[in-house]
Design brief:
Layout: H1 5-11, E1 16-21, E2 28-35, E3 41-48, H2 52-67, E4 75-78, E5 82-86, E6 91-92, H3 93-102, H4 111-132, E7 136-137, E8 146-149, E9 152-155, E10 162-163, H5 166-179, H6 186-203, H7 207-226
Antiparallel strand pairs: 1-2, 2-3, 3-5, 4-5, 6-8, 7-10, 8-9
Amino acid sequence: MNLKREIYDKLKSDFCFIEKQFQSKKNQVYLINFLDSEKQNRKCVLKEYRSLSGFEKELTILEGLKNLYIRVPKIFNRGCNYILMEYIDGCTLTEFFEKMEKDTLPPEECYVVADELCRWLADFYKGVKVITDKQLIMKDVNLRNFIVSGSYIYGIDFEDVGEGSCEEDVGKICAFLVTYYPEYTEWKLKLSKYFRDNAIKILKLNQELVMHEFFNELKAIEKRRKS
């Protein structure tokens, strides 16, 4: 892909190139390297949307959450179907947990990150309520939609945000925690249980509903992997 002249203008730079393309089933997402006005090497993310409704929804949510000081990427600029946003230097939750387990570190070493995820979700639910006056949830809580950067977590994908119960998000996260490869290890089960119990306490959730959503998502994951 060649960058449009418009992207150069939006970044106010004559030196831009695509460093890599991120995995995305819905959109075209790129890491852009560029020189800023002070000739400093910087990075940003270019996200081009196939769906105009998804573009408009994510733009609204990102701007609203950022204004409420909730950890999401900052928007640098936008076009008719794309957003140029801050690149969060870190790793996805999937990558983080995979490395911790591969390095044979105990799951307890990840509890601080699980706690931070609970706090981020609590802030997100309060934030979208302020922005939209509705009880919205993320819906798409794939672990790749969260970035671990230092001691903080950032949410990065809000196209699928919609009405629902917080139990749905938490149940799905618990399912994702035990089903990335290799599946259902004792390490993953222990971490998932810790996150579930902590989320139920912090977010004041119904445990039975969380478990219902957990098993529903396990079935959905199995079906997707067989198709």
